[in-house]
Amino acid sequence: MPTRTLTTPDGVMDVYVAEPAQPRGAGVIVIQEAFGVNHHIQSIADRLAAEGYVALAPALFHRSGSPILDYGDIPAATQHLGVLTAAGLSVDLDATIAAFADYGITARQIGLIGFCMGGSVSFFAATRCPIGASVGFYGGGIAAGRMGMPSLLEMAPSVTVPWLGQYGDEDQGIPVEQVEQLREALASVGADTQIIRYPGAGHGFNCDERPAAYHRASAVAAWSRALEWFDRHLARS
Fold this sequence. Notes:
By secondary structure, the chain is of the alpha/beta class. The protein has one domain (about 5-235): Alpha/Beta hydrolase fold, catalytic domain (Rossmann fold, 3-Layer(aba) Sandwich). The chain is about 35% helix and about 20% strand. The protein has seven helices and eight strands, in the order βββαβααβαβαβαβα. It has an eight-stranded mixed sheet, with helices on both faces. The protein is globular, with a radius of gyration of 16 Å. The two termini are about 30 Å apart. The mean pLDDT is about 95.
């Protein structure tokens, strides 16, 4: 697969690279689920490249071997998640943002999209990275922090980047009540924010490689909204 390596203070980080045939002068960082930069995450990058974006998917588990895990291997996923810290995530995000300079893409021309744990990282990035826009799919940690980060509710006042959050109403790990609390917490921030809920969809509804989780109608609508969000907010070269 097309990859490059980036040097971070914590070692080398592999990055999956998808380059567009017809560049639109913008890029997107793709943040993995808890199972690594697997085929699904690579396919997300490829789909973004087909839309004209340079897409980079960093292997955030590089400190613990950059594994690709089976979807059912929750114990291993939990173990690798436990190695992540807010400081380490910051280092990895900064290194990935800097890599877009090789394509002549500035920070304001960069979007970020994340799934599951990546959805939480999308929110964290919206509080600290000078990018153009961020999109999160079913990111947890709303009421209690994850991966060494504060909870999303605690971070909400610090959001400065346009952020779109997409959640399934049937997500057993992210109660609708918490999603609505997050919506309320974001109501007074200066950045453009939006939360969309999908009736009938559960956790992982965008992943067509997880038949039990995939909810096609919601996935199609959510992908369309993500592209619209980037089109609206990312600066053009």
